[in-house]
Design brief:
This protein is of the alpha+beta class and 97 residues long. 25% of the residues lie in helices and 45% in strands.
Length: 97
């Protein structure tokens, strides 16, 4: 099984539309671990780890988002798998980006 890691940056109307909670639900549904957070510049960022096909499914969901979101761009940066996450969590607060 191919294990992968992806950092995803979602740009558009993505805060205040339950994007993080829905991302967590999608990741858990597909067995993907990592985190999702709001950034202070209005973007949402996620770190995803898991089976390659499952991570790709979560990324595809991020390109669509919840019904009230508007996705202008979804940037994906593939990284080396680390296995550091045991679960998928929503990080509180805003990170500087």
């Amino acid at each position: 099984m191919d294990r992968v890691r992806a950092r995803v940056l979602i740009i558009g109307l993505v805060q205040g539309v339950y994007f993080r909670a829905n991302t967590r639900d999608c990741a858990k549904k597909h067995g993907v671990s990592g985190w999702v957070r709001n950034n202070s510049n209005g973007t949402v960022e996620a770190m995803l780890e898991g089976n390659g096909e499952d991570v790709k499914r979560v990324i595809e969901w991020c390109r669509i988002g919840p019904a009230s979101a508007r996705i202008d761009r979804c940037d994906v940066q593939w990284q080396e798998y680390t296995g550091e996450f045991n679960d998928f969590v929503v990080l509180a607060g805003h990170a500087s980006y």
